[in-house]
Design a protein that fits this description.
Blueprint: H1 7-28, H2 48-53, E1 102-109, E2 120-127, E3 130-139, E4 142-151, E5 157-159, E6 177-185, E7 192-194, E8 201-204, E9 211-220, E10 230-238
Antiparallel strand pairs: 1-10, 2-3, 3-4, 4-6, 5-8, 7-9, 8-9, 9-10
């Protein structure tokens, strides 16, 4: 035992250990777990799988926190480009037809004729044997816008503001009868307007199959001196 404590013996034993095991361990570069000091290896030295294995399972989700205060409103964004026009919608249903027994007119005559016989005229309405015509002409230095009625059937009846032909003697040969008119100065081309002065007029065909009640308006230079000389408007009801 005394010989074992001799320094030479100890050095020989260390050399023998290195030769048998320690040198091989150092040559292989491997370090056993027992040789590593606890808490001495940094996380960056571990492999990704080793780090992942250290994570525990996700715990249950906590309760939602209180809603935070509303932040200030942001600035208005730039206006975007206009979108493409949409497709044309389907045509709507046709509306109900208006009354079929009412006829209206609204027209003008640009210039005057030299006389009633040479008047510039416009057809206003035709119902059955009756025709309403607008006459625009000069007479004794005046411009006249006149509405007349004629018949294409003998034995018709007419009640106009002048009380003409009330009893069945409104015939073809009677010609045009005046039912309304307006008179304006031809030199100054003054404006004049006249409506149904006596409640309009009424006419009935000989067999009584066509009855009309009419209301007409006549005017001269209603749009001023540069406008049409005569204007005609009105309506009639067919019974």
């Amino acid at each position: 035992m005394k010989s074992l404590k001799h320094p030479a013996t100890i050095l020989a034993a260390v050399a023998l250990f290195v030769a048998l095991g320690g040198g091989a361990a150092m040559a292989s570069g491997l370090v056993s777990g027992s040789q590593i000091k606890n808490h001495s290896i940094a996380a960056k030295k571990l492999t990704k799988s080793a780090i992942k294995s250290l994570h525990g399972q996700r715990g249950p989700q906590g309760l939602p926190g209180a809603t935070g205060a509303t932040g200030p409103q942001g600035a208005t964004g730039a206006t975007g480009p206009q979108g493409a026009s949409g497709a044309t919608g389907a045509t709507g249903p046709q509306g109900p037809a208006g009354p079929s027994n009412i006829l209206t007119w609204n027209t003008t005559v640009a210039t005057t004729g030299a006389s009633f016989a040479a008047a510039n005229t416009v057809t206003l309405a035709t119902v059955g044997p009756f025709t309403l015509t607008g006459y625009c002409y000069l007479s004794s230095g005046q411009t006249l816008a006149e509405t007349d009625i004629t018949t294409s059937q003998d034995g018709a009846s007419l009640q106009d503001p002048a009380g003409n032909n009330p009893s069945g003697d409104f015939n073809i040969a009677t010609g045009a009868l005046k039912v309304d008119f307006a008179v304006g100065d031809a030199t100054t081309k003054s404006t004049n307007f006249w409506g149904p002065s006596d409640g309009g007029f009424a006419a009935e065909s000989a067999p009584g199959t066509t009855i009309i009640n009419g209301f007409n308006n006549d005017g001269t230079y209603m749009l001023g001196t540069s406008g049409p000389a005569c204007s005609f408007s009105g309506f009639l009801v067919k019974d």
